[in-house]
Amino acid sequence: MTAHGGSWRALVRELGGAVLDLLRAEADALVRDLGASGRTLVRALVFAAVAGAVAFWTLGLLVYLAVELLTLVLPRWGAAAVVLGAFALAAAALALAARSRLRALESPDVTVRRRLADSRRWWRERIEADPEAGTAAPPEIEEELP
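User: That's the sequence. What structure does it adopt?
Assistant: Structure tokens below.
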């Protein structure tokens, strides 16, 4: 083998290492993106759970107090209906808040597609920025490989 053949192998090894480094970097970035989506999902679920717990534990006392206060000016059935309507509106507002947080999440398949599109765009920009890089003739090989 000549020194030229050895440098060719070194270039191939270097290229392979660069591709592996690129794949590792892309995988790390994808893991970070998916982790951020997971944390956002957990926060939204905790928010919904806390809202449900607060509503559950205060519901009995609030309903009783509201109905008793309204019985001073309304019949008992009317007071119960007004309180029911108010709590239904509050529950709807909490459900809408939880839904808006869940809709803000990026699904994992969208995250993967976005990362792949970003990578393709980056490579395309690099290739278009240096059009001579792809058209250069390969170095001449002095001897045939076995």
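The chain has a mean pLDDT of 84.
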